[in-house]
TrEMBL record:
GO terms for biological process: mitochondrial proton-transporting ATP synthase complex assembly. GO terms for cellular component: mitochondrial inner membrane. This is ATP synthase mitochondrial F1 complex assembly factor 2. Keywords: Chaperone, Membrane, Mitochondrion, Mitochondrion inner membrane, Transit peptide. It is a peripheral membrane protein. The gene is Atpaf2.
């Protein structure tokens, strides 16, 4: 169910043998597959606990992106290993949003060049790879060496962080924008704007659909931000000294 009546008063975290746990009153949180909900860092536990603590009379599961990502990491419903996760992420390069360009209308083509070229150039310099762009329906011909470089880079992340990286890539439809966001080269707002460039161009020309476009924009920002935060919190081993969930 996407919603459920709130059944707890207090949210807290505790440290167990496998990591940090979330407590709803005196109940320990479990995953959809009934595994003990245990996360690797105290900071991530606090962030998840904050999601649960911020729910009002009704628990809106669809707003709890960090909880969902943790459940995915713990249950691994698709049963993929690390290399399968990495290859799935790198495969997005073949259809990366910022690599597909239009020729017409000229104004949109110029907008894509002005907005997307700098982030492609950053990625090529940052990772010492060739990426390019194309107006062909087949997309650019990404060199095998470029894919191997990204495979090696992603292999430096742990399984939890990789789940978050793939989540961000899926939201933005772009490996390049996702790595720019995770590497702190661009902000969430900028990454989302670049991923929706054609839609934003059409909105500027034809106007906004009342509430619908705004909702989509805010939801995409929330998902991209949560995924990026998840990656960072899963990549850090330091503990948080001061509890944030105090009155």
């Amino acid at each position: 169910p996407s919603e459920r009546k709130r059944f707890y008063q207090n949210v807290s975290i505790s440290q167990g043998e496998g990591g940090f746990e979330i407590n709803l009153d005196h109940r320990k949180l479990k995953t959809p597959q009934a595994k003990l909900f245990t996360v690797p860092s105290e900071a991530l536990a606090i962030a998840v606990a904050t999601e649960w603590d911020s729910q009002k009379d009704t628990i809106k599961f669809y707003t709890m992106h960090l909880t969902t990502l943790c459940n995915t990491a713990l249950d691994n419903p698709t049963q993929r290993n690390k290399m399968q996760l990495i290859r799935a992420a790198v495969k997005f390069l073949e259809t990366d949003t910022v690599c597909y360009r239009v020729e017409e209308p000229a104004a949109l083509a110029e907008l894509q060049k002005n907005e997307w070229d700098p982030v492609v150039a950053w990625a090529e310099k940052r990772y010492n790879v060739a990426i390019g762009s194309s107006t062909s329906i087949l997309g650019p011909n990404i060199p095998a060496s470029t894919k191997e470089t990204f495979i090696s880079h992603l292999a430096s992340y742990n399984m939890w962080a990789l789940q978050g990286i793939e989540y961000v890539i899926t939201q933005l439809k772009s490996l390049i924008l996702s790595m720019g966001l995770i590497d702190r080269h661009i902000t969430v707002e900028k990454a989302v704007l670049l991923s929706r460039l054609e839609e934003e161009y059409q909105i500027q020309r034809w106007g906004n659909v009342e509430w619908a476009h705004d909702y989509d924009l805010c939801e995409l920002r929330a998902r991209a931000a949560a995924g990026t935060l998840f990656v960072h919190l899963c990549s850090e081993s330091s503990t948080v000294k001061h509890k944030l969930l105090q009155d």
